[in-house]
Write a structure and sequence with these properties.
237 residues; Phosphorylase Kinase, domain 1; two-stranded antiparallel ribbon; 6 helices; 9 strands; transmembrane; membrane; DUF4245 domain-containing protein; DUF4245; transmembrane helix
Length: 237
Amino acid sequence: MTDKTPDTETEAAPVKSGADAPEGAAAAGGEAGPRPIPVSPGVHKRLTTGLGGFTLAMGASLILALMIFVVTPRADEQILPTVDYGSQLWVMRNDAPFPVHSPEGLPAGWRPTSSRVHGLDGEAGGPVAWHLGFVTPGDEYAALEQSDEKASEYVPRMTNSSKPLGTMQVAGNTWKKYHRADKEANSLARTLPDGVSLVVTGTATYEELAVLAGSLKTQPKGGGIDPSSPASPPAAP
C-alpha cells in the first residue's frame, strides 16, 4: 500500500528506458531500442563546449606550427666547412716516400673541404696515400687521390671502374678517363714512371677535373712550407 496519489506518481516518476521500461512500452510508443538518457544543461554544455574548445586550440596550434615551418629558412644541402691542408702537405713533403703532387694556382671558387693522409703512422714500407677534396666553382665535388700503392689495385678502387673510356690531354700529359654511372662519378687517372698514381675524381665534369689535374705540381722533398701556414686557394668573391 502507498500513500502517493496517482497524480503525484505521474509527476515524480523517472523516465524509463531499455530494460527498466515495462514490456510493450516500445511497441506502444512506436520506437525500438533504448531511449536517450537525459542530462542537465550544465553537463551538456561541458560535454560540447569543452570538445569544441579543445578542437579550436589544436587547430590554432597546427596553423602556428605550419606558419613557423613556412617562414623558417632551410638549407637543402649541407654546407661543408673549408679546411686548410697546409699541415698535411708539409707532412707529405717531408715524410712521404715519393714526391707529392699538390695543386697550385687553382682559380677562385675552388674550396678545400677535406684532407687526409694515410700510411705514415702504420707499418714501414706500406703504401702511403693523400686525399684532398674540394667543392668546385660548379658546386660539385672533386678530389685528388695519390698513392704509391700498386696502380692495378689503387686506380680501379679510386675511380670505381676498371675500364677506361678513353684518354684526355691535360697540360701536355695523357690521363685515362673513367665513368661510373650508378655513382655519378667521373675520373681522370695517371700513373707516373715511379709507380705513383694520381687520380682526380668526383661528381664534377671532366672539364673541372681537368682544371684540378692541370694545377698539380711536384713538390720538392724535405723542407717545404711551415705546417701552420695556409695552403688553400683563394675563395670565390
